[in-house]
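Record type: ASSEMBLY
Status: queued
Input:
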Amino acid sequence: MRNVTADTITEAVLRTIADTTEPRLRQIMTSLISHLHAFAREVELTSDEWMAAMEFLARVGETTQTDRNEFILASDTLGVSALVDLLHNRASDGAATSSLLGPFYINGERMRSLEVGGDLIGDNEGEPVVVAGRVTTPQGAPIAGACLEIWQNAANGQYESEAPEHAPGNLRCKMFTDDQGRYRFTTIKPVAYTVPYDGPVGTMLQALGRHAWRPAHIHFRITAVGYRPLVTELFVADDAYIDADAVFGVREPLLVDFRRIESPQEAAAYGVTEGYALVTYDFGLQPVA
Ligand code: BEZ
Ligand code: FE
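Status: finished
Output:
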């Protein structure tokens, strides 16, 4: 191996992993090495450029902490998270479309339980809205006892975990569907916000002339025994960034209208008063194969 050249080095590296016994690991690493080498050849990568890449990754590592994963943000902004989701979560008839989990999901004490019809607004400012619908099988049958974990940002654009002034658990909850598969909660309309851009990923976005905005959305993670977990987001359809999401999470079936409730009767049917907007959405879950 003492005479490797630019033409033979890829084969030389691949030979060293040819005996890897775990077949999936061998497949992934073979492909990764081949593509990395092809990329370096294609752009005729210089040592300075490769060092800059190594320094970027080192800064991404230094920026990553318990509440902030800069690697995930890099993957999100480069569209890899969205691609992986799209490859493995193809919506089938009657099943809801999935989208990104994002870095602000937590599943612990700060996810307080809310009854169907409960209130998430508390002392948050913002446009009040009632969100309601059902969790169903692909055929539309109700799934009782499905667990919805719900999280969104506040009027200042920040999630509870980003802003110490928010009460722990602000605008986050866990809710179980009733015997007819229904869920319902009151909240405020979410707002567009920027993904964290004060770190190396922000520097990268800036260098590439990209913005960091996401259109306003509410996150959902829905689980039920016998069904595949669904991670998704509902987006404010008329948001200015709906076609320019910095992390490529928007899917047409996930756009929702926040329409004004039109009558006292309609408001009463959703357990609110007339000043509220209404969003309705049914989530179909896919049975485990
Ligand atoms: C979010 O929606 O919370 C999010 C997703 C990806 C990157 C940053 C934020
Ligand atoms: Fe989000």
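Annotation: The mean pLDDT is 95.
Annotation: The chain has seven helices and 13 strands.
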